[in-house]
Amino acid sequence: MHRSFRVSSPRVMHETIEGEVIVIDLTTGSYYSLRGSGAAVWEAIERGSSEGEIVRALGERYDAPAAEIASAVGRLLGELEAQGLVEGGDDGPPAAATETSQSGVDGPRPAFQAPVLEKHTDMQDLILLDPVHEVDERGWPHAAPAGSERL
Amino acid sequence: MSWSEPRVTVMIGVYNGAPYLAEAIDSVLAQTRPAFELIVVDDGSDDASGTIARGYGSPVRCIRQERSGMAAARNRAVQAASGNYFAFLDADDRFPFDKLERQLETFAGDPALDVVYGHVSEFLSPDLDVHARPLLRTPRTDVPWPTPNLMLVKRDAFLRVGGFSTELRVGIGVDWHARANEAGLKSAIPTVVVLERRLHAANNGIRERAFKPQYLHVLKHALDRRRHA
User: Residue-wise pLDDT tens for chain B (229 aa)?
Assistant: First the structure.
């Protein structure tokens, strides 16, 4: 529960668009979608949360027994790690203070639906070969630096 | 339509592509199975691109427009095209000498096909300076690439999918490919190199790096269309 998570960078490109998180794995060309509770988990990871903090954030947002949420979050984190989209580490700095408990939700919390990580592989060849992904500040498509040649 | 003799319109959109445009045009004119016409749309270049293209004469046709982007340039060429098969070529790439022959062969083997893709081989542009060369990734050779940049597509199939999106700066090919799949186009990817893709310092992806997030939007819209289909 104390492991903190962060998005794998620069391997992953991601953005939340109309409530849906779209993630591209630049090393495989696969792309993923997270909606609803899955999007909430991803956003918590973007804030640098620990697993415990993620479970707590979802518990404030959704109406479900804590054990059910904890189990679903653990499963999703395992999937995200297995796909290489997030990296779990030792305790990092505490997550930025959030105001989810005062986010203006006065009414009943919505029912919890277990998060689903959608994976799509229909664009792999296109994503892998597009030069836009090798772009960095140096301005040219670049190879990953070989370990022994670090400047 | 399936009984008419294939007539291929090849289309090149160019913006300030003088260094490599002649190589691109020459590679089309050198085809073992000749194109019916080659339309070059000069997208408001202020280098010698227009002059180079106009120097060829038939079957090269030149159209000049104000700068509107690559998608608009290709769409303009489509409007002027009179062939029943379409192919596109970036102004800095080259066709292998037998590209059209091999892709037409694939069509002949399966008349139900709407679009034929193929493989691409990348090459380092010989004019790269010594400092730029080591920064480039190893060129990929002979890998599949189902993209408009190397397709040969039947005219009516292309029109069914629609033109290239003029709202995007990157991901134009991914967007078109997604819509082609949604339109139910039947495709093949023969294991033949049908495009030589140049890696150089001014690849479109670099010029347009401020538009990376658009890539994610292209995929989001593709997913939305799929769910509401």
Answer: 445 799 999 999 999 999 999 999 999 999 999 999 999 999 999 999 999 999 999 999 999 999 999 999 999 999 999 999 999 999 999 999 999 999 999 999 999 999 999 999 999 899 887 766 666 677 889 999 999 999 999 999 999 999 999 998 778 999 999 999 999 999 999 999 999 999 886 654 554 555 566 788 899 999 999 998 7
Strand-strand pairing, B187-188 and B115-116: parallel
Cβ contacts of B201 on chain A, cutoff 8 Å: 139-140
Q: Does A27 touch chain B (CB under 8 A)?
A: no
**Cβ–Cβ below 8 Å for B215 and A123:** no
* A135 found inside a domain: no
Cβ–Cβ < 8 Å for B193, B152? no
Residue of A nearest to B144 (CA): A125
Please give the model's pTM, rounded to 2 decimal places: 0.78
Task: For residue A37, give its domain range.
Answer: 4-95+112-130
Contact predicate B20/B92, CB 8 Å: yes
Token pair 């990296």 is at which residue? A87
Scored b (16 or more CB within 10 A) or e, B15-30 reads bbbbbbbbebbebbee
Domains parsed from chain B with CATH numbers: 8-228 (3.90.550.10)
Q: Say which CATH number the domain at A78 has.
A: 3.90.930
Domain assignment present for residue A149? The answer is no
Contact B170, B135 (CB under 8 A): no
